[in-house]
Amino acid sequence: NVQPAAQPSTQTNAQPAVQPQIVITDVHKEYGDLHVLKGVNLEIQPSTVTVILGPSGSGKSTLLRMINQLETITGGEIDVDGEMIGYKPVQRGGQTVLQTLSDKEVARQRAHIGMVFQKFNLFPHMTVLENIIEAPVHVAGMKKEQALAEARTYLEMVGLSDRANHYPSQLSGGQQQRVAIARAIAMHPDIMLFDEPTSALDPELVGEVLSVMRKLADDGMTMVVVTHEIGFAREVADQIVFMDGGVVVESGTADIVDHPQTERFQEFLKAVL
Ligand code: ADP
Ligand code: MG
Predict the structure, then answer these.
(1) DSSP H helices in the chain
(2) Measuring from atom 11 of ligand 1, which residue has the nearest CA?
(3) Is the ipTM of this complex over 0.95?
(4) Residue 233, Cα to own-chain centre: how many angstroms?
(5) Which ligand is nearest to the CA of 54?
(6) What is the per-residue pLDDT across 214-264, written as a single tens digit (0 to 9) for each?
């Protein structure tokens, strides 16, 4: 993990340098002959919300899944909190080569990244509370009493205190997704990835999930959100990224949706707005 030597600043009013929390450098993904990501570059600052927009098939889910190591990287590099994910550089015969991390090291890196999917994937045979404490107790080794106490505060945060002992099938889609968010938070992540969290919901249930996400953002969570909700993007995003064809076509602050520079982004916005 080589850090560049700090340079003495010549500026008098230099801003304190904030280390990006996620750095994505020339990342590629190939599935056999299919070249899905073709050199993605992106930096994500701590406690910011990045919204990724783009047409279906542009590689948004693949990129999120690579950050969370559900997919391997076939080229380039992703660093989280200054550490390369999935690989470590080792010296071999006078050369630096990348070695795949052990399952244990991968688990350590993934432990502080939470992910919420389009399909909520709650355990159907467990109550809401049981769903939330499952990983803290069985993966993180938390005491059950503590996990339960924490779970109740997360349920309050997502507005579902009165549903603690319900089963997923007894909840609406919006409620299930809010439980899924509470379940992810229960592992104390410092980064949350959302892959189209409201796409499977009836329109009238989208708002309640977005409002929980807004709350998380206000609390300072670093968030990367794939969504077609342009209103949410405009209001909450610190950074918007438009992907198409496996590359970042445009990125910038939230107002890029009002001034798209490329025809591809213009066409996309026309279709979703
Ligand atoms: P998006 O989320 O932007 O809709 P994806 O990242 O899901 O796009 O997919 C990008 C491309 O990669 C698509 O062409 C998709 O068919 C392909 N793809 C995704 N996952 C796999 C896989 N496991 N094997 C082969 N191709 C895949
Ligand atoms: Mg997708």
Answers:
(1) 60-67, 103-110, 128-138, 144-157, 173-185, 203-218, 230-236, 263-272
(2) 57
(3) yes
(4) 14
(5) 1
(6) 999 999 999 999 999 999 999 999 999 999 999 999 999 999 999 999 999
